[in-house]
UniProtKB/TrEMBL annotation:
CDD domains reported in the protein's UniProt record: ASKHA_NBD_YjiL-like
Organism: Fusobacterium mortiferum
InterPro entries given in the database record: ATPase_BadF (IPR002731), ATPase_NBD (IPR043129), CoA_E_activase_dom (IPR008275), Dehydratase_Activator_Redct (IPR051805)
Cofactors: [4Fe-4S] cluster
Protein name per UniProt: CoA activase
Protein keywords: Iron, Iron-sulfur, Metal-binding
UniProt domain ATPase BadF/BadG/BcrA/BcrD type: residue ranges: 4-249
One function term, GO molecular function aspect: iron-sulfur cluster binding
């Protein structure tokens, strides 16, 4: 029997397949322009891999969860990221999820979501913010982060992505180096995320999920900003939402 969690985010869809004991398969697909099309592609891939059986249970989550008609249940990404983070970290913590369109700070208590807060200023402090700024500088997100290591003394002050974009263009016009601009962009995200944590965190243990979880430099910057170690699982933490959905699918079977 298989339990499948599907997390369709704004930029990428993550899929996890579990059996009764462990994760046996995982994959990602770009979300693209249509969550419905992405859902269809996921179903076909799962069918081709032999995971769609009569007794398979499927739970959907994320930005595009309403576009998964073959899911037996849908659930919010807050709950799923909390469950997935606890599965990976195995202790109560403050979960930091830097997503494509929003950032979520989630407090876990006894392995369950006790409280959460989300950013409310456009997409500042998110993966989308980094993507937009990277596009202006002509680099991908990971390259932007690498550039930032060699930058200094530049700040991006705008809380809105549109205004921050104008700031970056002005800096380019003034002849500021790409390294310094990248430094300002990356540290702006770290500052926004850390500010949310300081407002909300009730636990000094931090666990990072989302697409940036495999970047050691982001973990280092967050740890420094929060004055405490930020942990992650560089292989699986980006799948936290899908893991939480798959764990929820197991509960459907037991009812």
């Amino acid at each position: 029997m298989f339990f499948i969690g599907i997390d369709i985010g704004s930029t990428a869809a993550k899929v996890v397949v579990m059996d009764s004991e462990k994760i046996i398969e995982k994959f990602t697909l770009p979300t693209g322009w249509s969550c419905v099309e992405t859902s269809d592609n996921i179903l076909k891939k799962l069918e081709d891999m032999g995971y769609i059986k009569e007794d398979t249970k499927i739970v959907g989550t994320g930005y595009g969860r309403v576009s998964i008609p073959f899911a037996h249940k849908t659930i919010t990404e807050i709950t799923c990221h909390g469950l997935g983070a606890y599965y990976l970290f195995k202790q109560d913590c403050t979960v930091i999820d830097i997503g494509g369109q929003d950032t979520k700070i989630i407090t876990l208590q006894d392995g369950m979501v006790a409280d959460f807060i989300m950013n409310d200023k456009c997409s500042a402090g998110t993966g989308r913010f980094l993507e937009v700024m990277g596009n202006i500088l002509g680099v991908k997100i990971n390259d932007l982060i690498e550039l930032s290591k060699n930058g200094k003394d530049t700040k991006i002050t705008s809380m809105c992505t549109v205004f921050a974009e104008s700031e970056v263009i002005s800096l380019i016009g003034r002849g500021e180096s790409r390294e310094n601009i990248a430094y300002g962009v990356v540290n702006s995200v770290i500052e926004r995320v850390s500010s949310l944590c300081r407002k909300h965190a009730k636990n000094s243990l931090f666990f990072l999920t989302g697409g940036l979880c495999s970047n050691e430099y982001i973990l280092e910057l967050l740890s420094s900003s929060l004055k405490g170690e930020v942990y992650s699982d560089t292989e699986l933490a980006r799948y936290a939402g899908a893991i939480g959905a798959a764990l929820t699918a197991k509960k459907i079977k037991n009812r």
